[in-house]
């Protein structure tokens, strides 16, 4: 279960940021080896404060372990032929890092594994970076003798859409029935630098597809927009920014908003700090009544959805209906200049051996 991860305690914030800024697949920096630790050190106090305010760390590890355990229990019932199934969490920037997970997998004598992204929508900067990480660890001899296949995206899976839609409905139910249909549904996803969008990264399209599917499932009862949050640094990022959209809606006389995190499956600083503490507070000062759709966390509908996705994948793979990788993940971004993306894709397409 691959994801970026987050610091479980405030004390782990610096190492998390150092790993993040050292990732050339996410943020290619000149003199990265020197610049990454410097930026991480400078940013640490501010980000530590945010993790302290959301309860002393990121809950992503706890949610991932709950989701993994729930998924594996369902899979054992659904696919007895490949049981027992064991979930391993592998984070890109926080513990448990891929190296530690690889060690556990080796200890357990794992021979068959599915690299299952926990980002619903694919970006080279997120899922792509985690796949490059598996590939590099395998090249370094940490993951020998394992047959791999990949679940690379699932942003329109009906179970995922149903889980999000149910949380949107619960948030909408908090508004007065007389005015509920005037509530704007504002989907918010982590933004991408325009340099990534412009090299042909599929994330913007895939997040849009998720939003469309949720709105179809809700029967278009309310008006909606998709906006983008959490841009970092001075370069151009995909807009419109979530905070500006909230202020703009208030300016246009809108009174009610449901905020929906659509590109991440558990709580993190972007929901608990940025959306709940920063944006919602400011929006309320502009006269908006605002409720956030809960993150998926331990939603049983969501846990069943990831079990369904894995179940179908394992069946189709064993029956020879699909190969180790999807058709879509085989295509590099037309503007990609990262050589590892190419060799990684060839390696996974061979089943990783
Ligand atoms: C689908 C989700 C995400 C995408 C796409 C994404 C792209 C992306 N992010 C950065 C830079 C930073 N991201 C940071 C934190 C962070 N990013 C995501 C998710 C996505 N990022 C999450 C969930 C988090 C927070 C983790 C948590 O536990 O809350 C940070 C660190 C925080 C900070 O310093 O402000 C940076 C930096 C880039 C450059 C990028 C695309 C190229
Ligand atoms: Fe990010
Ligand atoms: Fe790439």
UniProtKB/TrEMBL annotation:
Judging by the UniProt lineage, the source's domain of life is Eukaryota
Which CDD domains does the entry mention?
Ferrochelatase_C, Ferrochelatase_N
What are the alphabetically sorted keywords of the record?
Heme biosynthesis, Iron, Lyase, Membrane, Mitochondrion, Mitochondrion inner membrane, Porphyrin biosynthesis, Transit peptide
Q: Does the keyword Iron apply?
A: yes
Task: Name a GO molecular-function annotation.
Answer: ferrochelatase activity
| A matching Pfam family | Ferrochelatase
Q: Membrane topology type, per the record?
A: Peripheral membrane protein
Q: What Enzyme Commission number(s) does the record list for this chain?
A: 4.98.1.1
Q: Which reaction does it catalyse?
A: heme b + 2 H(+) = protoporphyrin IX + Fe(2+)
Entry GO terms, CC: mitochondrial inner membrane
The pathway that the record names for this protein is: Porphyrin-containing compound metabolism; protoheme biosynthesis; protoheme from protoporphyrin-IX: step 1/1
Q: Where in the cell is it found?
A: Mitochondrion inner membrane
Q: What is its main location?
A: mitochondrion
Example of a GO biological process term: heme biosynthetic process
| InterPro entries, sorted | Ferrochelatase (IPR001015), Ferrochelatase_AS (IPR019772), Ferrochelatase_C (IPR033644), Ferrochelatase_N (IPR033659)
The record's similarity note reads: Belongs to the ferrochelatase family.
What the protein does? Catalyzes the ferrous insertion into protoporphyrin IX.
Q: What is this protein called?
A: Ferrochelatase
What's the source species for this entry? Athelia psychrophila
């Amino acid at each position: 279960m691959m994801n970026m991860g987050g610091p479980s305690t405030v004390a782990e914030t610096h190492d998390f940021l150092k790993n993040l800024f050292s990732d050339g697949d996410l943020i290619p920096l000149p003199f990265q080896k020197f610049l990454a630790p410097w930026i991480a050190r400078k940013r640490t106090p501010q980000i530590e404060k945010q993790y302290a305010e959301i309860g002393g760390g990121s809950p992503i590890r706890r949610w991932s372990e709950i989701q993994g355990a729930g998924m594996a229990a369902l899979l054992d019932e659904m696919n007895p032929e490949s049981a027992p199934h064991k979930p391993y969490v592998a984070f890109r920037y926080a513990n448990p890092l891929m190296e530690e997970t690889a060690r556990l997998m080796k200890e357990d004598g794992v021979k068959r594994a599915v690299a299952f992204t926990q980002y619903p929508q694919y970006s080279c900067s997120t899922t792509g970076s985690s796949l490059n990480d598996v590939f590099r660890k395998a090249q370094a001899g940490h993951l020998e003798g394992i047959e791999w296949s990949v679940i690379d995206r699932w942003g329109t899976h009906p179970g995922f859409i149903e889980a999000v839609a149910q949380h949107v409905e619960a948030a909408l139910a908090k508004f007065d029935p007389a005015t509920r249909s005037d509530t704007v549904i504002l989907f918010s996803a982590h933004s991408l630098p325009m340099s990534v969008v412009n090299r042909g990264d599929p994330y913007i399209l895939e997040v849009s597809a998720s939003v469309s599917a949720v709105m179809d499932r809700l029967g278009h009862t309310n008006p909606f927009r998709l906006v983008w949050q959490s841009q970092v640094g001075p370069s151009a990022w995909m807009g419109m920014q979530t905070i500006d959209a909230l202020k703009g809606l208030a300016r246009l006389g809108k009174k009610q908003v449901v905020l929906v995190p659509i590109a991440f499956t558990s709580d993190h600083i972007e929901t608990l700090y940025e959306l709940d503490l920063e944006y919602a507070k400011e929006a309320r000062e502009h006269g908006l009544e605002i409720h956030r759709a809960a993150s998926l966390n331990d939603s049983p509908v969501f846990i069943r959805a990831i079990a369904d996705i894995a179940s179908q994948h394992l069946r189709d793979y064993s029956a020879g209906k699909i190969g180790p990788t999807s058709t879509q993940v085989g295509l590099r971004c037309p503007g990609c200049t990262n050589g590892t993306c190419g060799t990684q894709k060839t390696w996974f397409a061979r089943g990783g051996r």
